[in-house]
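Fold this sequence, please.
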Amino acid sequence: MKNRYKWLKIMTGGLFAAYLLLTGYLFLCDREKENLMGDLQETVYWQSGAEGSKSTDQENRNEKVMSTESGEEGKKIALTFDDGPHPIYTPMLLDGLRKRGVKVTFFLMGSAVENYPDIVEQIAEDGHLIGNHTFHHVSLENADNNLIEAEVLSANELIEEVSGQYPQFIRPPFGQCGDQIESETGMICVLWSIDPLDWCTPDASKVVQRVLANARENGIILMHDQYKTSVLAAFTIIDQLQKEGYEFVTVDEILLD
């Protein structure tokens, strides 16, 4: 009788322990389910927000197109390219620009002009504006007369010799242009208002998205003709913005008009 009572106590204790384990398991499952649903809701909310943003952007773009179609004068925007010329991608870019009837501004490096004079001649022949990007892509933030002579004026002279254009505009590497550059050379420093970071973005579609999202009248777009993705992105940018009523011009038409 005692043994049967002992076994009954053991079985009862075991069943109670099993009940506690099952209850704890179900509780944890419910918590995990709540967390999962919360994550899912956050994901859906983020996607909805992104879709809403896309929809708003598209509506704004449609309004721009409609206003242009109704007779509103085209909006000017400038496409600029630094660090060239490149032996492969600059000719590819020039061909696409020629087909689209678009003029852009090239800020050339003296060292690249020295290596690819034929491409520089083609840039000038096609009617693009040529600017200076120093001889060796150096910072001009604290430039003294010796650096200005070596990096700016020497590049100007070489560009004029090859293209027939003496640059009036300079794009300072890294956007660093001390006051002495303009005062000593008589040139105009040209920065930018739209930077899609094409030089570090291997996905052309992302470059396009960044430019289209920030396109404004009298905007100056910074790009580089050193990468195939940048050239392909530029063609898409031109095609899309032209549909929206933008007119591509060289930087002098924005800065001097």
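Confidence is low (pLDDT under 50) at residues 25-72. The chain has two domains: 1-72, 75-255.
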